[in-house]
Amino acid sequence: MKVVKWLDEHMEEFLLVILLVVIACVSLLQVIIRKIPWIPSLTWAEEFCRFCWIWSVFLSLPYTIRMGNMLRVGVLLDMLPNAVRKTVNILVDIVTTACMGLLAYHSVAVVGGIQASGEASPAMLWPMWIVYSVMLIGFVLAVLRGLQQMYIHVTHFNEKELTTIEQTMRDAAEEAALAKGGEE
After folding, report:
1. Rounded Cα distance, 55 and 25, in Å
2. Domain of 124, in residue numbers
3. Which of 22, 63, 106, 184 yields a CA-CA distance of 20 to 30 A from 84?
4. Contact 88, 77 (CB under 8 A)
5. φ and ψ at residue 145, rounded to 5 degrees
6. pLDDT digit string (tens) for 25-73?
């Protein structure tokens, strides 16, 4: 159960950090090798980094849903009574999940069309359907995270929810306590 809990809390974070580290390392390697005259430059590095950036965008979708960081106007929600705020959150979860589901459904056709075309990337010669499949993975994970958030909001409907300002103050206090504990 520890593995499942860790995956629930950190899977997207872990993948995004790995992609960022890989992008940084490959870009740095490309810059260093470019300055060494007897080693040919990495012709695939720019394309690979571009693919990693695209993958990070689609993998950040489920992460933002899980963390509750989707674009919204939190101040307006904070002004509403708790029950109305919870209802709006559930409606937002429904709309978000439906949109991500629709995008996932259509991305199946896109990936299938690219696979049928046999298109390959110019520098690395990877099949492009593999590159585009992260779109489908990201949307499916976003649907799962949307359903998870909907479940959380429904099961905790009667609990008092912190406003954006209260949550920000609590997070700042926790960070300050952690920083103070690290100094000792």
Report:
1. 16
2. 1-180
3. 63
4. yes
5. -70, -35
6. 999 999 999 888 888 888 899 999 999 999 999 999 999 988 877 666 6
